[in-house]
């Protein structure tokens, strides 16, 4: 028999930004679905009305878009489905798998005081339906009291919960609003979710949720509870370790493709493969590769992965990433002239940069306008002797073919005629073209800038 198409989902509660852990959860679900021709759905768990502002939701969508994780269909609002959640709870009550509970908070508290360390058992659980008053009530699941609930988790293995340790959870509160735990099950069922990949902080919830599936006779999805991300010190990731919002990584200039690669490796592995592209990740990603131990965030490794992706990226993709980075950090987009000068240098700049700001810094010569303002070191290089050399060079470059070999030959000749090595004449050229002493090679800069701009900058420096 053919197995049903895979449907995964990401179900964030809007908190104002996309947490790096949430981003990884989304990525795992996306990879799993996309690698199997399945669907990846998005559900916004917006039942907490105080936190769930349109801005908070937009921040999450924005994060997913930046990371390149496309979802199928419209995002589902959990809040908007409250009536459906209530309908299911009422149907369960009619079917006898749930019951109305009229206990007040004070009564529950009194029960707890008399029964320490026991989950609450409602006196209405086994009450004769004829005795039910016509009064406001919650609806509770009539959960099994004996035996165990076992979650066959793809990551954690079989996890067993004693049913007498799980209370009859509330499905619908007396004010008619659904509980989160009930809403999740109804939503996942209605959305046809076949695989739930999420943080292992939801493992206990899975036991209660499995009871709701069973009570409704619904097929249980596959569960994979992934260990949460830890900081470099092995403690649960928190702000004191550094950036925890995906947008912070975007602002640090890690390309999205690098973040996808790095986050995929955070808790999942495919042999020793560290560096891979999306197609490989989609083909390789499987639940069996998810580790049981929490992965540690490793900023050095991220830098390394990022450098690989910057170097491997095609020019169009790289310029796209750069545009995204500039906009995410509130910087102006590159002008036509800047693009025209930067693009020919990209192949060189890529090899020298691990992040996008590093690339922009290396490529600064292509972004600045005349007259180039030399920094202190560059200004010191531009002494009278150097200016003389630059004059010679400028004269020699007037009629040369603007190609690497010809430029190199001219520079070599000028260096020799001044009794210097090529390195010695490179310093003032760097200062003149970039206003700095550390730059890409002078020939790469000349080729990227073109004849007119190069000659103009050399002339400016000797004026
Ligand atoms: N909304 C939950 C969270 O953000 C996720 C619930 C789930 O994946 O089942 O942690």
Automatic annotation (TrEMBL):
Start and end residues of each Glutamyl/glutaminyl-tRNA synthetase class Ib catalytic domain: 6-303
Q: Which GO terms describe its molecular function?
A: ATP binding; glutamate-tRNA ligase activity; tRNA binding; zinc ion binding
| Residues where ATP binds | 239
Every copy of the Aminoacyl-tRNA synthetase class I anticodon-binding domain together lies at 335-461
The keyword Electron transport is assigned to this record: no
List the keywords (alphabetical): Aminoacyl-tRNA synthetase, ATP-binding, Cytoplasm, Ligase, Nucleotide-binding, Protein biosynthesis
Q: Where is this motif: 'KMSKS' region?
A: 236-240
What's the family?
Answer: Belongs to the class-I aminoacyl-tRNA synthetase family. Glutamate--tRNA ligase type 1 subfamily.
Q: Which NCBIfam families match?
A: gltX_bact (TIGR00464)
Name-wise, this protein is Glutamate--tRNA ligase
Q: What's the source species for this entry? A: Paracoccus alkenifer
């Amino acid at each position: 028999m053919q197995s049903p198409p895979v449907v995964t989902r990401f179900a964030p509660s809007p908190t104002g930004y996309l947490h790096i852990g949430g981003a990884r959860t989304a990525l795992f679900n996306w990879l799993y679905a996309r690698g199997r021709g399945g669907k990846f759905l998005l559900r916004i768990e917006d039942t907490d009305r105080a936190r769930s502002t349109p801005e908070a939701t937009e921040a999450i969508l924005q994060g997913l878009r930046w990371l390149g994780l496309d979802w199928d269909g419209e995002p589902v609002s959990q809040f908007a489905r409250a009536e459906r959640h209530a309908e299911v709870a009422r149907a369960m009550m009619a079917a006898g798998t749930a019951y109305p509970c009229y206990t007040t908070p004070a009564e529950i508290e009194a029960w707890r005081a008399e029964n320490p360390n026991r989950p609450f058992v409602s006196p209405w659980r086994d009450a004769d339906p004829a005795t039910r008053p016509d009064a406001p009530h919650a609806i509770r699941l009539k959960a099994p009291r004996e035996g165990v609930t076992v979650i066959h988790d793809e990551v954690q293995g079989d996890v067993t919960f004693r049913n007498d340790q799980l209370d009859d959870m509330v499905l619908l509160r007396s004010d008619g609003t659904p509980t989160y735990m009930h809403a999740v099950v109804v939503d996942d069922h209605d959305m046809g979710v076949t695989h739930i990949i999420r943080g292992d902080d939801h493992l206990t919830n899975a036991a209660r949720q499995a009871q709701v599936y069973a009570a409704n006779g619904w097929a249980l999805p596959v569960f994979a509870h992934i260990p949460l991300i830890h900081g470099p010190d092995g403690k649960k990731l928190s702000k004191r370790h550094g950036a925890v919002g995906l947008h912070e990584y975007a602002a640090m200039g890690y390309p999205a493709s690098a973040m996808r690669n790095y986050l995929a490796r955070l808790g999942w592995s495919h042999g020793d493969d560290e560096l891979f592209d999306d197609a490989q990740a989609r083909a390789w990603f499987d639940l069996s590769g998810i580790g049981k131990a929490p992965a540690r965030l490793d900023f050095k490794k991220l830098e390394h992965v990022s450098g690989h992706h910057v170097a491997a990226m095609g020019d169009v993709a790289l310029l796209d990433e750069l545009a995204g980075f500039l906009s995410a950090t509130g910087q102006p987009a590159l002008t036509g002239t800047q693009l025209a000068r930067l693009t020919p240098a990209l192949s060189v700049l890529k090899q020298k940069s691990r992040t996008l700001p590093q690339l922009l810094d290396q490529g600064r010569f292509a972004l600045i306008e005349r007259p180039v303002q030399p920094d202190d070191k560059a200004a010191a290089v531009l002494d009278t002797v150097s200016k003389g050399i630059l004059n010679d060079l400028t004269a020699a470059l007037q009629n040369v073919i603007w190609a690497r070999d010809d430029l190199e030959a001219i520079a070599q000749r000028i260096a020799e005629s001044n009794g210097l090595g090529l390195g010695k004449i490179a310093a003032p050229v760097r200062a003149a073209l970039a206003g700095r002493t550390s730059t890409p090679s002078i020939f790469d800069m000349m080729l990227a800038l073109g004849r007119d701009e190069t000659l103009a900058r050399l002339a400016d420096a000797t004026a």
